[in-house]
Model the fold of this input.
Amino acid sequence: MTGAFRLDRRAALGLVAVPLLLPLARRPRAQTLDKLSFHTDWRAQAEHGGFYQALAAGLYKARGLDVDLRQGGPSLNIGQMLLAGRVDMTMSNSFEAFTYVRVGAPFFTIAAIFQKDPQVLIAHPGSGFDSFEKMKGRPLLISNGSRSTFWPYLRKKYGLSDAQLRPYNFNMSPFLADPQAIQQGFVSSEPFSIAEALGKQPEVLLIADAGFSAYQTTIVTSRALATGKKDMVQRFVDASLEGWAQYLRGGPAAEAANALIKQHNPDQTDARIAYAVKVLSERGIAQSGDALTGGIGAMSDARWRDFYDSMTDVDVLPKGLDVRQAYTLDFVNKGIGKK
Done:
């Protein structure tokens, strides 16, 4: 009995040992993730929410990516960091794309998250600012940077004058002190702060509704990376666009992204984030134009050409540039996040 017991015990242990070892032998090795760095243009905020969503929801990791999502700030020149090779991709806009073309730098736009430039003009509640024609004769608080971008376009289209311009240094105090003043801002930001200060919603006109056709919140990278590691770049774009589709739907699915935004930028509050997501959705900032057919991030040859022509018409961009060098359609127009 003793020998039989030992034999049965050894057999039983052997039978148990085999199934335990098989899963270990079949277990796949840990996935090696491709590292990629992406720099936003400002401190973390809802206007960057889709990228934070892709990170927080594991969309990048699910596509084999280890994404280093870096936030911008007032002292950082993101374009210079890209040119110096200190970051793989950056958040940018249509103007910078043509700057790269003009200087012959090997960088271009691969996706455009915002179909509408979210910049707005803001007036006091009840001041009658219901059309762009109403800007005539009123003081306009416009920043130095904007005086060489959208201002020449508006000035020519609506017969405005540089004499109307006043300094704008991202401080709303001069605006609040003058009931007739009109101030620039972002649809998802300054109107919220002004409403808090005045107790009423200000009057807001989206510059894109005047025909200003710049793409905003674009993704820019080098031609070398886009060609040498095309699959990796495609995975990053796809995950980012899916992140934006999820984030703009809001609800509990976006809570982890918002928590990450507030962790990176404590100045962001739940109320400010909720307002931003609401107006981005209501105004069709990301889901309009080319995105209605091509999905979030979509671009078109016609749109790039229209923007370039409108800017050469007001001498903001030089004539003779090769528009097709500013962008590629290889990574977008695949229907991701299409309504």
Residues 38 and 69 are 5 Å apart (CA to CA).
